[in-house]
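Exam revision sheet. Question 4 asks you to relate a sequence to its structure. Input first:
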Amino acid sequence: MFDLKDFGNLIFILKMCDDIEVYKEEMKIIDILDSRMGLNAVLMNIMQIGEYTKKLSIEFRSLDREYWKSIAGLRDRIAHDYGGVDLEIIEVVLREKIDELIDKIFDILRDNKNSLEIKEFLFDKTFLENFNSKKILLKNI
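Answer key, structure tokens:
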């Protein structure tokens, strides 16, 4: 169900979410979408989230198959049609879906809090050194 590899992949996904949250703290979403650099940064993070979603074990993804499939599917759409990305979809991702993903990952971590690795992650002071967004830092308190 949940192994150390899945844990590592979820933490990487969380880190990509953290980067997006930092962008959102520094810029309005509309400005991110209008900025070539901002949009490229966000799209790269979304693609990385999708790529690491694909690396989650089949057993883990099967617990919520459609959810993880939709994230991987968005990665594929961006990667294979970068110039044709629907900015309205990306706006929804930025306004709603990243927050939902962060919440989902923290729910998974808390549901598996008996794991030594997860305990160390959730309560280690280095957490503060690895994440920067208020959204994630406040989730961990």
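Marking note for examiners. The chain has a mean pLDDT of 91.
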